[in-house]
Amino acid sequence: MNVIDAIRHHVRMRPHDLAVVHPGGSLAYGQLGTIVSGLGAKLRALGIRPGTTVAIYVNDPFLHLGLVLAAMLEGIVSVSAHPNFDPMPPGAGIDTYLAEARLAFEPAAPVITVASNWLAEAARESGGGEMLEGRGFADPGAVCRKFTSSGTTGTPKIVAHTSEGLREIAARGLMMEPISGGPNLSMMWLSTIGGFNTSQSTLWHGGLLVMATLPHTVLRAINLYRVRYLRASPQQLQALVELVRGRAVRFPSLERVEVGGASTAASTVVAARALLCPNVVGVYGSTEAGMVAQTPAAVLQAQPTAAGYVVPEATLEIVDANDAVVASGTEGIVRIRTPAMARRYEGDEEATARGFRDGWFYPGDLGRLGADGIVHITGRTDEMINAGGVKLSPVIVDDFLITQPGVREAAAFARRQPGRGDEVWAAVVCEDAFDEEAVLGACRARLNSRAPVRLVRVAEIPRNAMGKPLRQQLTQQADRF
Question: Facing residues of 286 across strands?
C-alpha cells in the first residue's frame, strides 16, 4: 500500500472534500483523482515505462506533486530536483527528465518539456480515471521514490525508498503528529523527505494540503485557509519571523510549528513562539532514516543543541571510533536505526560502506545522550576544524556569532593552509549597524582559541534544500574572499 491507495479511498468516500490548495487554485479529492489519472495517461503516452526513473524539474508546486503521484500510479520511480535545478548525483539512474525549461547542464538521458497546460489537459483527458486505475507498484519492497541527500559534504547522494518504507514513514508521522488531517503546509520542497512526507501524510489522512513556499504567501495562506500545522527549516522560520516582527498580526489557527533540517537559534525559537505559535517542535532525522527525535518548545528554546527525545521504534546510540557505546553525556559519533531506514546509497558503494554498517546508519553527526534522555547534536564529523591542534565544531562559532549585534546569519568554516593548521573563518550576513572589530573581540573573549580570525561579509550563506550551510563550498571559495 502507498499514498495512491489512500487517495483512491478518499476519492470514493469524500470526492467533494478539499484536497489541495495551491498558487493556481484548489481542488477536491475527486478532482485530484482525475488530474493524477490524466497525468498518468500522459506519462504512458510519452512512452515512459514502469520501473524506469524520471527526474522532475518543475517549479509549479502542484504540477510537480501531480507528476510525482502520477508516476507512483504508473509504477514509475521518481526523483525531484531541488529548486536550484542542480544536476542529479551519480547513481540516480535517470531514464527520462521532465523539465519545464532548458537545463543548465547536459543530461545523459532524454528530456521531455513539461508544458503549463498539462494540468488542464489531464483534467480533460483522464478518460473518467478519477478512480485512479493504474499499474502501481505490485511489490511493496520495490523502490518507488528516490531522494537526494542533503549534500552538506558537497557530494549529494541518492537515497531510495520503497512503498513499504514510505508507508512506514507516513504511519510514524501520523502517530507523532496528532493534527495530520490538516490544513497542513510545508515550506520545504518536495525534493526533501520532510516536504514530501507532509504532502504524503496529509493526503494519506484525507486532509487538506496547502502548498506555498515564499514567506509572504505562506503567512497569507495560514490565515486564509486556517492552517493548523506548519513545517519549515530554521532559515524559513526566521524569514517568517522577520516579516511579522512589529506587525499587529496573529495566527490563531496554528497549533504546531515543526522546524527541522538544521540547528535552530534560540532567538528564532523565542520569536516564533511569541509571534507565530507557542508550540514550536524541533525534529531531528535524515533522508536516509526518517524521523528520529523530537524536541518540545521549552527544551528547544533553552538548549539550542538539543535534538530531543528519541521517538518510539527509533534507536539512537553514541559510539566511539571503534563503535563502542560511550558513557552517558560523553560526546561521540551518532548512529541510528529506524524501521523505515534505507540500506544503501544508490550507485555509491564507497559512501554506502561509510554510512551503513551492521544494520546502523551513521549520519555523520557528533552528539551526546544525556541521562535525561535528551539527544544533543554538537557537530559534524566531516566539518571539524583543526586550528593548530585545537579541534572544534563550527556550530559553536555559529551559535555565538548570531547572538552578536548586527549579525543575522553565520556559518563558520575552515580556511585550509597546506602544511599548517586550519584557520577559523566565518561567513556572516549582517545588518547595516555591524561593528566587525567589536564582534571579533567578543568572539575572542568568549571562544578563546576557537574564535574566528576573520569574518567574511556575504549577501547570503550557501545552503542546501534543508537549510544547512554548505561549509565545504565556503572553504573552497576562501581564497576568493
Answer: 290
